[in-house]
Amino acid sequence: MATKNVVDDEQKYDAGQIQVLKGLEAVRKRPGMYIGSTSERGLHHLVYEVVDNSIDEALVGYADNVRVTIHQDNSVTVEDNGRGIPVDIHPTEKMPGLELAMTVLHAGGKFDKNTYKVSGGLHGVGVSVVNALSEKLKVWVKRDGKEYYMDFARGDTTTKLKALRDVPKKETGTKTWFKPDHTIFTDLDYRYDTLALRLRELSFLNKGVLITLTDERAGREKSETFHAKGGLKEFVAHLNAARKNLHPEVLYVEAMKDDVGIELAMQYNDGYNENVFSFVNNINTHEGGTHLTGFKAALTRVINTHAQQGNFLKKADFTLSGDDVREGLTAVLSVKVREPQFEGQTKTKLGNSEVESAVKTLVNEWLAAYLDEHPRTANIILEKAVSAARAREAARKARDLTRRKSALDVGNLPGKLADCTLTDPALCELYLVEGDSAGGSAKQGRRRDFQAILPLRGKIINVEKARIDKVLSNEEIRTIITAIGSGIKEEFEVEKARYHKIIIMTDADVDGAHIRTLLLTFFFRQMPELIEAGYVYIAQPPLYRVAKGKEEYYAYDETERAEIATRLGNGDGRGSVNVQRYKGLGEMNPDQLWNTTMDPERRTLLKVNIEEAVLADQIFQTLMGDDVEPRRLFIETNAQFVKNLDI
Questions:
Q1: SS3 letters for 257-273?
Q2: Nearest one of 536, 544, 538, 584 to 560, comparing CA atoms
Q3: N or C, where is the chain less crowded by C-beta within 10 Å?
Q4: Catalytic amino acids?
Q5: Mean pLDDT by 10-residue block, N- to C-terminus, for the chain (647 residues)?
Q6: Architecture of domain 232-400 in CATH?
């Protein structure tokens, strides 16, 4: 058991510190506004909200132990050894602090910066939202030598605050049990791996905190403890576990600079991709922000300075770009900010200007000193960057073949692209279609005004194993980049994208899945901004055509096929039911392809997102990287989830 690190309690923490912004009724009416969705994503968000409260206690030094338990009925308990939610009467609201926190939206200590100097949780909606979206919720609080209890249901209080028993004064903390409301959520089954991913991440971001996840469900019994004494050093080592590292040690710094807590860990591997993740108060800032800008600027400056001093560039007529110095870099940057200001499409981009200068100053001083003191590691990093720069120079010619002067210049468009007639990107769609046969059907079945078709021949290069010059020498890759029109890497401009829907349409077989994965790897590694903008989609062609007489239906899985066949088979006896299994898109005629997969009124598209960037990086590295053993383990673990596999 870890030892609790209690800091001096300079500021009292009682109900008076809880500030109120009222209104809870809207949560049950529009839950998606508060937790993202009422499906699997929102269900797990409930756990994160409660855990965030426990982690906030850890951030200020009052908790070091958090336990999360999934029970048989998919109810969840979260318990910590923090100070315990206040139970005294609030001076203006005239109710116990615990009841206030559980029943009033935006009521909590996070809004009082004297109580929590920094806190996680993006919007501060807190446990009141969990209460509003739970059939039942129970809370036990230990503080001031007593254990207290309250009962709630669907946002309302069902029992008044009770003092259950006396406990030793040193025993403090909060235990919350809740059961998600079956009338709200479409999915009530918790995924252990999803929770484990977030809890492991939190343990890395809050070093020394012991986090335990236990699953009590029959047949799924499992328990793991996450405890990262080394913090982000262990995070980077975890991310690089399946990669070949260029230097054994993880470079690490932790310091306060201008009232900003900064923690950074970084290590180079022999790959060609940049894997830099940034966090603010435990929030994954997918869109980056000022803290990431400061880090990148300092990194580029320090490495260029060392390259010049060490004569690494004596025969070169170029300096090292940001992309050069970040090739093969895995890094995690975490900052703690008192008043974070978020912006961007998903509100996960930090806007505080003072954080940029703080990070830049610290990294400049620390990294310059580190490279001076560790010349062997410095040489390895510099050689990697110079090699990347030479490859970048070689890639310029290949890039010139893909560069277009403007989105309206169609003179350089690839010949096999059947473009659409509209020029407004918001209205235009590009289908990346596997094979010439399917491409021909798609061209005939499409609506020429807004749908463009680009047939792809064979499998594109695996960008996980290739440097940018090799990537750009691949004809199919160049064709895709030219058609989209937004450029690539440091020249990428999302505003120049000629289509706001780029739809991957491949066969529903193993080869089709492989091509789809290769394309997703390309977009994730080389044009992630397209995914972040919500422009990348996956088409869902049917697996079966089920017909009887003049009636025909399309089925997208085995269950649907069986249901349709049964319904038609129990008809009027006009003949047998004909079931056709589509092995490829080319087997459909143009009308069928339009009706099932391309008609906006009837098709189903899956939007690709990078909500869990860390997980996405690990999956792409596992599936498409050089190391075979992690890929074998991944396949063995996930084989049970495969629904359709052609043998």
A1: ECCEEEEEEEEEECCCC
A2: 544
A3: C
A4: 434, 507, 509, 511
A5: 48 66 70 84 92 90 95 97 92 89 72 54 67 95 95 92 94 96 92 93 94 96 95 94 92 95 96 92 90 97 91 74 94 93 76 95 96 95 91 69 44 79 95 89 94 90 83 87 86 91 88 86 88 91 88 87 86 70 85 92 86 59 59 50 42
A6: 2-Layer Sandwich (3.30)
